[in-house]
Amino acid sequence: MSWLPAAVLAVLLVVLVVALYGLALLLVRGHRRRTLMWVGWSLVLAGLIVIVGRTIAQAQLVSAVTTDASIEPAANDAYSALQSFISDYPLYERRPEADYMLEFVTGLLARHELYVARFYLNQDKFEPAVSRIYYALKRFQRSGLEPEALALLGETRLKMHQYQEAREVFSTILAKYPASAFTLPARRFLKYLDEHPQPTTMVVQ
Known about the structure:
Layout lengths: L2 H28 L5 H22 L2 H6 L5 H18 L6 H28 L3 H14 L6 H14 L3 H14 L6 H13 L10
Helix pairs in contact: 1-2, 2-4, 2-5, 4-5, 5-6, 6-7, 7-8, 7-9, 8-9
């Protein structure tokens, strides 16, 4: 796909995301309980559009306009609003839908952090990568992406030559998430560390 179609798609994605978010905010001002579903489903649709757009375009431009400047602020607002709503109305009759939307938005935000962390790792910018991973694990708990985040953290520690810390991270995956698919790379990395003993390094906090 050429640069021009990717650019046009990127602009359309941003416009649609902003329009959906604006509509949701307009609706929620007057009737919070009745229109919560509009807010949630608008953001779910926006997130899906961004994911599909990234997959189709395969262009850096699409990735650039669908990060901090577009979807993340809206998703962060939705995350806070949904948490507050569920706390204020625990017996809401459509609570399962609200829980699902919170789970989706949490996963979307966590995925974004890991996406950026992977970008930093590929650029050999290890400290920013570690910071993003820790932020995702602390801020977006129960996202379902914890094993993936830990695997990425372990890989980053390996590239930083922090071998003991990497071993501990991979061991954590095996202990806490034995059913996860990320136990496979964790076992491979642990096997590599066993076969290639390395000196322990200190982590500078």
